[in-house]
């Protein structure tokens, strides 16, 4: 089993709560209210800014050129591609970049992003990537699960983005990087600690979904 599959299996109940959250189910059947989706999109814009910072931190934490290139590629993908796509996507929902940048961060956004950065600051590159994994790989899993739900769905473009071959390749590259880092940075003796990090990050993903449902 890959490290990701082992981490997921070790935290299966929380992983299922994340992947099958009510927010995701409402996206799948198109019943999610527009206000809830727009609130999520705005906070996701703020999240991506800190996600980019995490990749910059990954480059700093790297001790070889291959890992620096991997981190730089992830940073460039977020800053030069994913953020632009997100802004264009949000414009279709009447959300401007200026408006999103001015939003106050939700407590859940702060908790999740700062947790990821703290794991990277206090730990090594493997700790950081394990904290990032539920987001990167989880969205790919959700995209595949919802792939056939896009037709006629107001959230079909969101589903297609994460079900796309391009995003699936990103997720697979992250799984490969986890295995590479585990082999280079301590092996199985670190699994228990890594599993706790993965569990916390997964539960923070659950809270991020719930944030999207809890607005009045």
Task: Give structural notes.
With 216 residues, the chain is mainly alpha-helical. It has one domain (3-213): Heme Oxygenase, Chain A, CATH 1.20.910.10. 80% of the residues lie in helices and 0% in strands. It has 11 helices and no strands. It has helices at residues 3-10, 12-19, 22-29, 34-61, 65-91, 97-101, 107-122, 125-145, 156-163, 165-184, 191-213. Helix 7 (107-122) packs antiparallel against helix 11 (191-213) and helix 8 (125-145) runs antiparallel to helix 10. The model has no long low-confidence stretch (mean pLDDT 94).
The CATH architecture name reads: Up-down Bundle
Backbone structural class: mainly alpha
How much strand? under 5%
Q: Would you identify the CATH H-level superfamily?
A: Heme oxygenase-like
Instruction: Report the end-to-end length measured between terminal Cα atoms.
Output: 43 Å
What is the CATH domain class?
Answer: Mainly Alpha
Order of helices and strands: HHHHHHHHHHH
Taking all Cα atoms into account, the compactness measure Rg is 17 Å
Instruction: Give me the CATH fold name.
Output: Heme Oxygenase, Chain A
> What coarse outline follows from CA principal-axis ratios?
globular
Largest sheet: none
Helix fraction, binned, reads over 70%
